[in-house]
User: Which sequence fits this backbone?
């Protein structure tokens, strides 16, 4: 598997995506939460193949601005977004038994909600893929400092996980997005730097970590929703 990446400049997001599509299309898709990083990855992806696949998770608790951004991106690129919803019976049971804000009561409850609304739908989305693409960057948080552009995802049947923006800075992302006039989530304009579900995301204060606004009531080491855990990384050029 490593040989497939020999000669590819892993610091070049476009080169990484080109090879990933050569290797895996149509069993590869971009997982988009409509973050700026995901929008940049989408722009590069669409410039390589107009029929590249994109999927998204509608947790039922997203901000209106996120839906507006998703629609703007859909129209801009003419892309068919493959939406996944949580199992309705699991959401109904959670809300009937624990109310609408159980995730604020404990880390365990928060992970339960993320499990129902994000992790299970993600597993369904990935079950028919050989690789997925993310907009993750190393700089985003203490949980992502080891991120590699190409990984195997031990949490999801060892499929490939492609992170073309792994080495990008926030400045790199904004510079690219502005040059290309990419539609973006308007919450960035009021201080948000990482955008997830509405009740679990806030704007950050000056000097705070880029993901400080996610589950801000929790310890930083806990700040993953279960979508990006237990990864076994490998570097194909070593
Ligand atoms: S981010 Fe919050 S609302 Fe969204 S799935 Fe996780 S706990 Fe639930």
Assistant:
């Amino acid at each position: 598997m490593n040989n497939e990446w020999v000669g590819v400049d892993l610091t070049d997001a476009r080169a990484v995506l080109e090879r990933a599509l050569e290797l895996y299309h149509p069993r590869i898709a971009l997982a988009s939460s409509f973050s700026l990083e995901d929008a940049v990855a989408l722009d590069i992806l669409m410039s390589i193949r107009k029929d590249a696949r994109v999927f998204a998770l509608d947790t039922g608790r997203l901000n209106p601005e996120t839906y507006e951004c998703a629609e703007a991106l859909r129209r801009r690129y003419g892309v068919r977004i493959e939406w996944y919803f949580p199992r309705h019976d699991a959401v109904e049971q959670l809300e009937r038994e624990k109310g609408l804000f159980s995730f604020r009561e404990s880390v365990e409850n928060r992970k339960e909600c993320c499990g129902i609304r994000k992790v299970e739908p993600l597993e369904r989305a990935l079950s028919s893929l050989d690789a997925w693409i993310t907009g993750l960057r190393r700089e985003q948080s203490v949980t992502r400092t080891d991120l590699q552009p190409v990984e195997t995802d031990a949490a999801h049947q060892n499929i490939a996980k492609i992170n073309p923006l792994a080495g990008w800075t926030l400045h790199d992302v904004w510079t690219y997005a502005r040059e290309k006039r990419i539609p973006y989530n308007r919450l960035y304009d009021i201080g948000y730097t990482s955008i997830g579900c509405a009740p679990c995301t806030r704007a950050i204060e000056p000097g705070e970590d880029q993901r400080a606004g996610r589950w801000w009531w929790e310890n930083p080491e806990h700040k993953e929703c279960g979508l990006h855990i237990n990864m076994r990384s490998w570097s194909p050029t070593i």
